[in-house]
Amino acid sequence: MALEVTLKSENGAILELAGKVVDVDVKKVQNKLDDLYKNKKLPRVVMDVSDVEFIDSHGLGVVVYFHTLMQKEKRSLTILNVNQDKNAYLNRLFEVTNLDKVLDIVDTLDT
Question: Among 6, 12, 30, 97, which residue has the fewest nearby CB atoms (within 10 Å)?
Answer without folding.
Answer: 6
